[in-house]
Amino acid sequence: MAGRCTTRADRAGARPGGARLDEPSAEHAGAPRDLIAVPAALATAVSTTGVAAVLAVEVLVPGGWGAAAWVPLVAGLLLGLPHGAVDHLLPSYRLHWRPVGLLAFAAGYAALAALAWAVFTAAPGPGLLVFVLVSAWHFGTGETAFADLRAGGVPVPRPIAASVLGALVLLVPLARGSSEVAAISAAVVPGWDGQLPGAVRVAVLAVVLPAAVLLAGVSAARRRWLEAGEVLLLLALVLVVPPAAAFGTWFGTWHAVRHVARVVAEDPAGAADLRAGRLAPSLRRFAVAAAAPTVAVLVVLTLLWSAADGWRGFVAAYLPLLAALTVPHVLVVAWLDRSAAQAGSRRMGTCGMPSST
Ligand SMILES: CC1=C(/C=C/C(C)=C/C=C/C(C)=C/C=C/C=C(C)/C=C/C=C(C)/C=C/C2=C(C)CCCC2(C)C)C(C)(C)CCC1
Ligand SMILES: [Fe+2]
């Protein structure tokens, strides 16, 4: 079959047991199943436990997070920082660049982030709007890609599921709003009170919440039990936990952890260990590689942060920096998804993967 484009029907016939085309399969492996299995299992355990723990505090401790709601936000934002810190290595893992190519790419990455930061600070209102929309897309596609890889397949574009998931974890907390969210937004965009118009909030909640319930139902109907359960868990997180704390928890213990699982599975130097079920050496290599870029960004953050404003000033300085890093980060991750899908398709001898939900 290699070397020609197969039809949708051809590929359906190639599936053992007549499985649906949009369900990942072991033969479609982009990052082979034996490499992603152990990191994905650990990332799943960490992310669901992290979210469940934050939810449990809100529900079981009298007063819930209350005045401490900023702690999961700040902790999550900091925990999530290293997840993009080896972005410059990802193309090189697949394309086998020499050190000079790697350096040039890292310099381009830093230059693009610096340009994005300058644009954001020059026009913070439109900048924040674009940042939020791009972030929602990145979070959603990151989630569907991880689920596909965890199930032994390749990242299949699933634009509807990705939009619902991204909106659930970012737009719902923003639409619910809180004094923290408003104060940070107002600090990021001078001259704005940080309040979204009531009609926008109602519209977001009225569309996204039923869509998330539907997505959980569709996943369950397709016997993707884990994905269905995860949507319900995230639904509980964004509805029960204070909005800023819910977002920080998602970012630090879910999105970032799952991305790191993908990254360690990409590292060719860790392949033998991962195949033997050993994760520690790969995690050590990730920590070493991520340390310098993470510290570099932390130094910039410290310089930008006006200490007098406490944690709100910290987050208000951090968001433009995250927005800036998001531009090259999103491009690298989108490239990674495409490259993994193409590698998987080549293995199957097909010309691209079908999309679904
Ligand atoms: C590699 C490299 C480096 C580094 C890098 C890094 C470290 C990265 C990272 C990256 C990252 C780390 C990314 C991230 C992303 C993120 C995101 C995407 C987020 C989002 C968020 C949001 C959207 C928010 C929202 C809000 C508001 C608006 C208000 C309030 C509330 C809240 C917070 C919710 C450097 C430059 C040194 C050099 C070159 C190379
Ligand atoms: Fe990310």
UniProtKB/TrEMBL annotation:
Assigned EC number: 1.13.11.63
UniProt keyword terms in alphabetical order: Cell membrane, Dioxygenase, Iron, Membrane, Metal-binding, Monooxygenase, Oxidoreductase, Transmembrane, Transmembrane helix
Cross-referenced InterPro entries: Blh_diox (IPR022270)
Catalysis: reaction(s): all-trans-beta-carotene + O2 = 2 all-trans-retinal
Residues at which Fe cation binds: 83, 138, 255, 259
Residue spans crossing the bilayer: 35-57, 63-81, 102-122, 198-219, 231-251, 286-308, 315-336
Chain intervals for the UniProt region annotation (Disordered): 1-27
The protein's required cofactors: Fe(2+)
GO molecular function: beta-carotene 15,15'-dioxygenase activity; carotenoid dioxygenase activity; iron ion binding; monooxygenase activity
Single Gene Ontology BP annotation: carotene catabolic process
Predominant localisation class: membrane
GO cellular component: plasma membrane
Localization per record: Cell membrane
Membrane topology: Multi-pass membrane protein
Database matches in NCBIfam families: blh_monoox
Function per UniProt: Catalyzes the cleavage of beta-carotene at its central double bond (15,15') to yield two molecules of all-trans-retinal.
Protein family (similarity comment): Belongs to the Brp/Blh beta-carotene diooxygenase family.
Protein name stated in the entry: Probable beta-carotene 15,15'-dioxygenase
Native species: Blastococcus aurantiacus
